[in-house]
Structure formats: structure tokens, C-alpha cells
């Protein structure tokens, strides 16, 4: 790769994910001008071969591409438009008063004409939707805008193997595709139909699963510890079962380490922000999200307990305040009892994951998200679970078939009655142990509501009918 | 009242409520033989004029009536039947081996023939249902059994003005009525149709409201404090509004005092027990209880935080860990802003109370509870609220009218759309403040589910339709 041929990229937001993304672009031969509110982050980026921008507007200087990876919509708005020294505005007020054009090479102070702006921060789709009117309102219709939230870990950001959900006009997508391809895994660059806003919506419905399943992992491991099960054995049992999820496998590992404040891969505040976007947008869309709502309140309680800067796997302490290791009941080695207890933990995750799949798919469908693409994306990303892979496919086929007016028999799964019965036994045992089960309780109520609607004998996937008319 | 004419009453469970009830019977001229596992409680009862029984069976000696007021079904079962020295069994093993009859005046060691046993503990109806088979199985078909849980405060127990919900055979009710009348307010003795079990079910559906509204009071006062509102002003505003409830008025007062560990009128563990009965029975009945389920998890979290022995009003600390007094924003005296904030708090309670009324009435209806009696009882008891009085009546009329196949217009109330809209604004503001709103969030989802079912333009009372087929 000849460095000289690569265009210059501006970058704001050099946090855990942003740093990895920006450093990867440097590695791939791009000239990257990086900025962050924390000088230390800029310094680190400079050490990784980046150019330290002196200011927001300076980071945009001469850039064909600009990537915004700050934490929130509020920060994005300030950095891109509302700061005195903002990234996008074409004219620096002082320079303008001197009659100097913003394109004057001596004053490279804002995003050049015809640049492509990629908003990779996770934001409400309503914010992404504001760009097609905000840009013209400041005379910058020349900018190509791509709504392109990303998913996955800091490690994959640094490797250029992110999942990216990009929504934009065809022209903007054509412009942005090159750089999106560099940042993402070949198979994980999703060009989302529906244009601006649908990228953010796609990310959001993915985060419905992530937000529920991060807490579900804590709920399961905490419940297991309260049952007296060994955490490592629980982890192994779940991971090799169909109760597994990407989040359980990932977060469960860190629960075994129990270094929530020193080994922070993803802070509680991050998932809390994403979950907050979901419930805020669900209020705008008047869409009920019982599981995400329940999860959000527990995350807020965790925040109030001081867990905000900790790894989100530390939420297990909301269920089992004592260390997991050492909580297991070494006196009882009755393997039959242990097996029965483990079955409860597996049931909990299984049914929470089915209910989560229903909540996410029902929401995605109501937002006119391409469900086939959503399915493919989730299965390859952090929102995936064995239950989503199986039940999610059935739910989506059900929606498609219902739209087409056909009803095709599927291989058998358990019924709503069985789900309600098994989950009841789990919740009862947790009650006996005085262990809260926020998600287990909320999921059980969804299966019971489905039962009230006459779906008792139907497949457990019909729990999605709770969201129906 | 001539003391000599009054029959002897046995009593087990001399806790806060039980002591008041037993002492009141003494005051009314009954000879009362009291027992408790705590010797200090027996001593105190003796000082109040009661007879200190030496054992469980001794407390039953020569008693025409026996009242069981222990804390749980487990305790009741042990005291009444399963202890070596149990209250009910007709034959003391040792005495029997000597050929001595249990009616021998020298060995007055168990409940006499034809006695009336009143189970006043709050127990699952399934436990009350066990008596008609348990009693014959030990040869005690002679006992008249009344399932008679009570409600209200220790003060009213001591005054003989409790609410009592009594279910039994006609014969047992005829026997028990005298003593039930002494313990209860004239207007608050409810002879519940449907026999044994329905007394406990009636109590249970009343506790659906109590369990939700105790936490709702904390949620509202905590949210108000996080908004910067003055707690005393909040209390006054709620109490004089239609967002008021018996629980808010009662618990809110103690939140102003903030002496949760020293001024304990009703411990968290008590409501947690009642709520546990509700969710356990709701699993047996396959009835969804989203609000009580949410409340239970928060109570369990409170237990885990060490609040168990504290007054349940101390649950406000789950929402606002800092003292309420002093948390108010004295710097902002913009009365318009304060009024807008107060409106959010009032909305929160209003809609949680409407949703709670729906959950309780739907559950009562599914249990074939007499809804008119339930309504009357709630309005006069600790589960009452202004919203229950108004919306509850409308919901019950709706159920009755629907059963009769008629549809009569009612005076107007807000719509589901309005409820969802106003409650969304509340939940959004709480999210901005990072304040959990477990009940507000769960109630909002119920209104949104109703909207999904096409009830958007219908009265807010139609939220009960979420539990429909």
C-alpha cells in the first residue's frame, strides 16, 4: 500500500474504540488527524503514528473523510456543529471577517468541500435524521453524510474487523464505502436499506439483545452462585449448551476473574448509554420494551452503587454481593442436586434469550428493518445467542409467512406452556433464595401474557405475539 | 361486659400485629392464652393481662377459639400440626400412651373438640385450602376452620378495628363471627363468598395494591428528591391530589422523618413476604403480574442492601441514596419549573396507581373474587388510592357490563395515548437524572402494550385489556 495514495482522514473521539479504529487507519496507510478532549488520548494516538490535531476544526483540515466516534449524540452535536471551533462549519468566524475563504490553505480550519462525514457514534436514529436538514441549514449540502454505527470490541476496532451498519444516500455510500471497508470485516459491513437513520436503528435493535444479554449473563452467574454452584463449572455448562450467548461467553469469562474495576473492557456506563437510547427511542415509537426497561433500571441501580466505571460484567454483584469464587457450596457434592440446579440456570438463560429475541425482532419489524439482514448481523455479532439463531429464525419466518398469507409447519420446539412452567420453577427457586431475577421475572410475565392470549399450546416463539394487535 | 361469660381464646404469634390483637381481646374481657417463640413477647403479653402459655399445646388448652397469627404458612404448619407439641392434634403422644384422654382436665394439652380455629396469618390460598383435608387426616374433622387474614396497622389491631377477610363454611363462619367482630371494625369485616381460600385470595389481591404502592411511594419521593423538589412540599402536593394513596400518605410521612431503622412500623421483610406469596401464587395460577414482579425484585435488592429489618419506607434509598431532607435544590426557586417537576411526580403516581388497579382487578377477576366486595374493601383499606376509587370502579363496571353484554358510556377520563404520553415524559426525565423508575417503566410498558392492541384512543382504564385474551 502506497501511503501517498491514501486520503487524509479526520477523527474525533479517541477512546477505547475510537483509538483502535483510528490507529488501524494509520496502520492501513491513511494520514489520520486525531482529536480528543483528553490531551493524553491525543498523545497516545500520536505515538501510534497519527497526527495530533490542535483543535476540533484543525482535525478536519484537508480531510476527504471525517469520522466522528465520540460517546454521545450530545457530544457529536457539540463537536461537529455547535462549538465555536466546530468540525463541520465552512467558515471560521474570525477568518471570515477578514475576507479570507475557508478553503484558503493557510487557514485549513474546517471540513473541506465534498468531504464524507461518517458518524460512527451510537446515537438515536432521530439524531442521525437531523443531518439532512442540519447540513443545508449551515450551507454545507456539499458534505456526504453516512450514518454508520459500529459494533464489537476494542480489539476488533484495532484489527479493522468491526461490524458496521451503514445507512446513507447511494452517493454518500459510494463515497464512504472505501473507508468503511477498511474498518470492518469483509462479511460484517452491512449497507442497511432505508437510508440515513436506519443504520442507527439497526444498531439500536442489535443493542436490544446486547443490553438484555449483558445483564442476563450477570443474572445467570449470580443466581448460580446463590444456588451454590461453582462459577467455572457454570460457565462451562452454559457455554457448551444452547443457553449460550456471545455476551455470556464474553462477560462470563470476566466474572470468573472478578477484576471489575481493574480489567475494564466495556464500562457499565457504555451499555447504560446504549440502553438509554433504546428506551428513549421506544418511547418516541410508542413501542413496549419490557426486558430492556427492566435491564435499564438495574444498570441505573448499579450506577448508583458506584459500578459505573467498572466493567459491565461487574453487574453480577447486584445478584450476588459476595465474590463468586468461594461462594459455591463445597459441602454439597451431590451431583444429582447440582445437575438440577444447573438445569435451572440453563433454563433461565434459555427463556430470557427467547424473550429477548422476540422483543428485538418485534421492535426491528416495527421499524421496517430488513429482518433477514438483521438476523445475519446479529448471528455474527455481540447480540448473538444460540436461541436467537434458532428461535429468531423461526420468528422471522413466521412474520414473513404471515405477511405472505402462508402458514408452514416447522420442526417442533417447546410450547409457551412449557416455557412458562420451566421458567416458573426457576423464578420460584430464586425467590426461595431471596435472589432478585429482574429479567427472569419479566420474561416469565411475557410468556404468561402470551398464555392469556390463548397461545399456551403454541410454540415458545409465539411469545412475540405479545407485541401484536 | 361480664368477663366470666366470654370464652377462652388461644393465640400464637405475639408480634407487632398479634400482640395488639391478643391484648385487645383481653381488653374486651376474653381469657386469652398466648404463646410465642420469643419468651419476651409472652412476658409482655402477660403484663397486658394475658395468660402466659407454657407451650404451643398449652396455649390451646380449654380454648373455644384459637387464633394463629404467626408470620408465615411454614410457621403456621409447624405450630398447628407438625411440632411435637402442636396446637391442633387431639392426643399428646405421651399422655396417650398412658391411656389418658386429651380432654382430661389434668392434661389440657391440645385444641378441644369443636373449637373454632382462625388462621389470621397471611398465607397462600393454597395453604388455606389444605385444611379441609389436613384436619380430617389427623382425625380432627370436629374443628371449625376459618381462613381469615387481616389487614392494616398494629394500632388498629390493638383497637379491634382491623379489616378482616374471612372465608369458611357457613357453619364455621357462624361460629367464628363473634370473635371476628371483636377484632374488626364493624364495616371492615368481610365475609368473603367462596369459602376457604377465598379469604386468603382476597387478602392477596389487596396486597397486590399494597405491594406496588408501598414501593411507588418510595419511587415518587426518591424521584422528587432527584428532581430537586422539597420532600415536605412533595408530600403535601401528593396527599391533596388524586395521585394520593393510603400507602403514600402513610409511608411518605415516615420518609420525611427518615428514621428507617429506629422507627419501624412495618419492616421490609413483611411486605416482601406478602409480595412473595402473590408472585408464587401468580405462577401457580399462570397469571402475569408485571408490576408486583418488578416491585419484588427491588425489595429483594433492598434486602440485599441490608434494609430488611428497616421500615419499608426506607426503600426510598434505592432511588435516592442521600437523605431526602437537604437534597432539595434550594438554589432554584423558579416556581414554574418546580410546578412542572411536581407535575411529573404526580403523573408517575397517577399512572402507576391506574396500572396497579388494573393488575389487581384483573387478577381478582381471574380468581372469581367478588369484585364489588373487593372494591369496597380496598377503598377502606391500606391498598386504597384515589385512582383505585375512580378508575377501579370504572374497570369493575366494565367487566360486569361486558359479562352482561352491555356497553354504557361513562364520564370521560384520559386516554391510553395520554397516559403513555405523560408517563413517557416522566420516565424520560428520570432517565436524564439517572434515577431508576422500576414501576414507572413497567407501567409505561403496560400502556404501550395496550396501545399495540389498538386501545390508544380508549380510556386509560382499558389498560386492563392487556390481561385479556
Q: How confident is the prediction overall: mean pLDDT of chain A?
A: 92
Distance between the termini of chain A: 56 Å
Return residue spans of chain A where pLDDT drops below 50 for at least 5 consecutive residues: 92-108
CATH class of the largest domain in chain A, named: Mainly Alpha
Q: Report the sheet with the most strands of chain A, covering strand number, pairing sense and barrel closure.
A: 9 strands, mixed
Tell me roughly what share of residues is in helical segments of chain A: 40-55%
Structure in words:
The structure is a homodimer of 469-residue chains. Helices cover 53% and strands 9% of the residues of chain A. The first copy, chain A, has helices spanning 16-27, 39-47, 56-60, 73-82, 93-97, 125-128, 131-137, 154-159, 170-183, 198-227, 231-239, 246-257, 268-284, 290-304, 335-366, 371-379, 386-404, 416-432, 438-455; strands spanning 8-12, 31-35, 51-52, 65-68, 116-119, 144-147, 150-151, 162-168, 184-191. In chain A, strands 1, 2, 3, 4, 5, 6, 7, 8 and 9 form a nine-stranded mixed sheet that branches. In chain A, strand 2 (31-35), helix 2 (39-47) and strand 3 (51-52) form a beta-alpha-beta unit. In chain A, helix 11 packs antiparallel against helix 12.
Amino acid at each position: 500500500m502506497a501511503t501517498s495514495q491514501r486520503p487524509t482522514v479526520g477523527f474525533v473521539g479517541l477512546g477505547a474504540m475510537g483509538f483502535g479504529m483510528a490507529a488501524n487507519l494509520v496502520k492501513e496507510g491513511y494520514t489520520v488527524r486525531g482529536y480528543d478532549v483528553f490531551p493524553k488520548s491525543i498523545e497516545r494516538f500520536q505515538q501510534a503514528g497519527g497526527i495530533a490535531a490542535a483543535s476540533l476544526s484543525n482535525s478536519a483540515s484537508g480531510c476527504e473523510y471525517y469520522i466522528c466516534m465520540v460517546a454521545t449524540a450530545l457530544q457529536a452535536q457539540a463537536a461537529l456543529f455547535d462549538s465555536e471551533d466546530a468540525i463541520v462549519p465552512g467558515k471560521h468566524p474570525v477568518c471570515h471577517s477578514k475576507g479570507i475563504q475557508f478553503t484558503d490553505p493557510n487557514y485549513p480550519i474546517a471540513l473541506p468541500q465534498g468531504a464524507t462525514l461518517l458518524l460512527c457514534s451510537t446515537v438515536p436514529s432521530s439524531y442521525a435524521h437531523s443531518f439532512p436538514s442540519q447540513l443545508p441549514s449551515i450551507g454545507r449540502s456539499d458534505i456526504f453524510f453516512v450514518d454508520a454505527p459500529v459494533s464489537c470490541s476494542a480489539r476488533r476496532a484495532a484489527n479493522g474487523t468491526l461490524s458496521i451498519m451503514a445507512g446513507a444516500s447511494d452517493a454518500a455510500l459510494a463515497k464512504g464505502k472505501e473507508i468503511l471497508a477498511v474498518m470492518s470485516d469483509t462479511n460484517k459491513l452491512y449497507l442497511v436499506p432505508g437510508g440515513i437513520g436506519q443504520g442507527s436503528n439497526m444498531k439500536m435493535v442489535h443493542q436490544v439483545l446486547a443490553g438484555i444479554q449483558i445483564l442476563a449473563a450477570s443474572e445467570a452467574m449470580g443466581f448460580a452462585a446463590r444456588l451454590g454452584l461453582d462459577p467455572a463449572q457454570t460457565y462451562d455448562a452454559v457455554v457448551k449448551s444452547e443457553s449460550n450467548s456471545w455476551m455470556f461467553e464474553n462477560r462470563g469469562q470476566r466474572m470468573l476473574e472478578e477484576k471489575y474495576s481493574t480489567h475494564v473492557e466495556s464500562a457499565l456506563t457504555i451499555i447504560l448509554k446504549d440502553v438509554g437510547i433504546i428506551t428513549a427511542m421506544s418511547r418516541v415509537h410508542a413501542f413496549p420494551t419490557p426486558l430492556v426497561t427492566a435491564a435499564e433500571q438495574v444498570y441505573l441501580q448499579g450506577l448508583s452503587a458506584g459500578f459505573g466505571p467498572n466493567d459491565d460484567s461487574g453487574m453480577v454483584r447486584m445478584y450476588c454481593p459476595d465474590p463468586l469464587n468461594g461462594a459455591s457450596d463445597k459441602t454439597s457434592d451431590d451431583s444429582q442436586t447440582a445437575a438440577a440446579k444447573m438445569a435451572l440456570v440453563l433454563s433461565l438463560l434459555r427463556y430470557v434469550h427467547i424473550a429477548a429475541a422476540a422483543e428485538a425482532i418485534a421492535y426491528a419489524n416495527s421499524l421496517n428493518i430488513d429482518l433477514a439482514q438483521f438476523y445475519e448481523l446479529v448471528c455474527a455479532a455481540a447480540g448473538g445467542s444460540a436461541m436467537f439463531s434458532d428461535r429468531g429464525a423461526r420468528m422471522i419466518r413466521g412474520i414473513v409467512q404471515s405477511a405472505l398469507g402462508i402458514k408452514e409447519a416447522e420442526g417442533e420446539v417447546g410450547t409457551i406452556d412449557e416455557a412458562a412452567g420451566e421458567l416458573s420453577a426457576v423464578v420460584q427457586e430464586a425467590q426461595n433464595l431471596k435472589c432478585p431475577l429482574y429479567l427472569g421475572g419479566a420474561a416469565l410475565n411475557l410468556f404468561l401474557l402470551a398464555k392469556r392470549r390463548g397461545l399456551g399450546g403454541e410454540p415458545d416463539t409465539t411469545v412475540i405475539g405479545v407485541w401484536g394487535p
